[in-house]
Amino acid sequence: MAAAGVVPFLPAAPTASASPQHPDFTLVHDGTAVAIHVDAADDPAVLRVAGDLQADVERVTGVRPEVVHTLPDRAAGLILVGTLGACPVVDRLVARGRLDVSRVSGRREASVTRIVERPLPGVDRALVIAGSDRRGTVYGVYDTSERIGVSPWYWWADVPVERRAALSVPAGPFVRPEPSVRYRGVFINDEQNLTTWSQRTQEPDKNIGPKTYERVFELLLRLKANYLWPAMHPYSDFFNKYRENPELADRYGLVVGSSHPEALLRNGVHEWAPWAEEHRGEDGALPVYDYTVNPGVISDYWRARARENAAYESSWTIGMRGLHDTALETKNATTIPEKVAVMNDIIADQRRILAEEVGAAAEPQIFIPYKEVLDLYNAGVRVPDDVTLIWPDDNHGNMRQLPDGSERARAGGNGIYYHLSYWGRPRSYLWLDTTQPAKVWQELRRVYEHGVDRMWIFNVGDVKSIETGLSLAMDLAWDMDRRAGGDAEDFLGAWYGRQFGLRHGPELAAIRTEYHRLAAERRPEFIDRNVFSVIHHGDEAGRRMAAYDRLLARVRAVGAELPAEYRDAFYELVEYPVHGAYLMNLKYYWADRNTLAVRQGRGAGTNRFADLAEAAHTEEAALTKRYNTAVAGGKWDGIVNPYPSQIPKAPGRPSVTRVAQQETSGLGIAAEGNETGAERPLAFSSLTRDRRFVDVFNIGFLPLTWAAETSHPWVRLSSSGGSLTEQTRVWAEIDWALAPAGTLDASVTFTSADRRFEVPLLVVNSAARARGFVEANGFVSIDARHTERRVARGGAGWRTVPGLGRRTGAVEAVPSTADPVTEGHASRAAELRYRVRFTSTGVFPVTVLRLPSLDERGARRLAIGLDEQPVTVLTGQNIATGNRGDAWARNVEEGVEKLTGTVTVAAPGEHVLRIFMVDPGIVVDQIVVDTGGLPAAAYLAPPESHHPVFNPAPGTEPGLEAPGT
Fold this sequence. Notes:
Distance between the termini: 55 Å
Shape: globular
Radius of gyration: 31 Å
Keywords: Hydrolase
Pfam family, one: GH115_C
Mean pLDDT: 95
GO molecular function: hydrolase activity
InterPro entries: GH115, GH115_C, GH115_sf, Hex-like_dom2
Helix content: 25-40%
Strand content: 15-25%
Protein name: Glycosyl hydrolase 115 family protein
């Protein structure tokens, strides 16, 4: 079948095992390949894809089959490729009952692949690939390519095709049913790197032209996509500049549309200025792109493109925004009602143009209420019933709103415009694929539950680096129902097994899941100074970097096991994203340590941190240079650049400070939780088995000798002294077997020749055991999935979404179409329960970290309570403002929203903390109760508290330490 260890990632279908009565179909044997027959009268897209199958068989075997248009007089085997109603030989097989197309006929883009014995006079066996329409046939052919071991990413990610001398496909029938979503595609956007690469390696005289689009078209079809919004920015050539582009798209069988500011396939960035120049007013003035000022000139502008592209299968964007992704300009309409009336006039004009120039073929027509247009839509814009509403996310993977009952009943249906890459407020993410697959999964399932199945369009930036996210999106768009019982981790395991061999799939899926978890804490493109604390929670920034360090070690271990021919693909799909994200975070970690060192008055150590920060930036640059100049022989020159010149950049080189060398020395310390000194004691609990650090440093440059002494023998240190030039980190732990029971005071004393520092320790050695989470060190921290009990009520419940959020999974209120519960929560609302043992009493803040989902026509609420006390409803941000610095901006930067209420603990002991669904679709990630010990300066929630089942021995992972210290 396929290459050893490689499993095709294809939809399930009834497949019979090979037997003497039903043997597999041989494609190549003894250096001879069976011919591929395709009728010359079939669609050009089908004729073309037969050539791709021909090339794929040759890629696997080195033998190139012949493509024929006439039936052979005699053949032991033949591949028959044809479309129902367009291929006479396939139609005859159907008419004679030799080919069952009951699950295909009359459907969109469906296909069946089946072995037929003695299909024709003189032909012993045939592998028949029959499609319901032209794209159905194309997808059937590409299914066969995958089944013989050719990845859709063989070219775009250099996934090798393992060679085989003999080749066959399984005996049983393979059916690809109609897709879940009718139009599935991508928007190439913010494409400066793709433009640079295209101009350097594909078409030196163009900035993304036909040769590049051919590669894009093939990739989309191999992924079973059918739809494209082409590149549209000033640095790339607009799609219709080259008439070969729409002609090629039609020959490939792709539908071409345009984005929200590009009405009726017009690229305003490039095309409006020359049109305006040719249509100056009587006074010689240039017309502006404002329908309230120049409706006639603008209408003619749209009409010209409608007439020009009428012959092609297109998607027509109606409505209007400003040029180049700017807001709608309406000089003569200043109020919302006036702007609504203008938009209604615009839509009526465009519909008239399409009826006159394109006719009945002018479908689908789409209306995209993006940014300010959503406000106008909600204020009363009338969108004709047969037009598809395309609902946008907030550019950060959170759907802004979804259709209500009347909108779901529209003849035109509903679609989404979803970002896997984005340029804009509050921050851009254009460099790496950093949206959690589980988040994409969860949001798309919510979308599908709301009946949004007409069109899904994904912003994929430069295409490269979004390989995994794009593959997942297209897989879900094809068959959402098949994925109902699985999750994103299942997909990742199968997908990576498909690219690198089955045995590596689980480990690569785990690596990718951890990579995305770290990005969920903060995307590498969003990293900045002083985001993560370097003094709290065991140095939360250092622990994060240590997690990255461990992850990179796992990446290298898998890479070392792969054959040499897989190294390029592995670098592109696994190593570069992980290593690049690691270094982007690392340089800011060392820069933050450098800044703190300056405040602490460190000497040589300050400069060491500056060196480490700059070394990480230099290593990151070398990593990218390797991608662009060495990987695949320099094939991807220019495709990856964190710092492009014309679009928002990833964080660059952080500034650092160096201090002048002085021939002095002196001891300094900073205990965990303190920038300097040890005013905040180090807290230890026998239940959490904490490790705490003390940074011991030199305020000068000459070596010094230091020593550390504990007040009690049950306090253990990782180091008790030595010679010090820069700094070292000393870890303190408690030997709980030796420590007496109760609340204990202890200390560690650090001394040098002329200095002495005492660090206080607060130690709680409790023999108590609890059935739930335990308060310790002044807080309780809970991963939301670790429930004592989940209660379903009112037709709603909860499900865990593995790989979602900042931990290992989050909990979602389902179904997303459930009714809100606005009163009587304790008896009517779906509930999460957590057993907690409190040692403190009082009124305590409870912070629920939820994923920042939106609902601009509703609310985003949940409720909290303790035991049988009255509940408190917490209301989250439900609107995407598009601003910087506000609540929405903070939520998308941090990947969570923190909702805080209070509970009253009247007596110590065990209590039940309760979380209630108020609005459906709420996703809870973590819960933190502050009983007086939670530091305000920390970015992340503290490590999860002790729980006898979920977290019996929490401990603390060590952070990343400066080398040589």
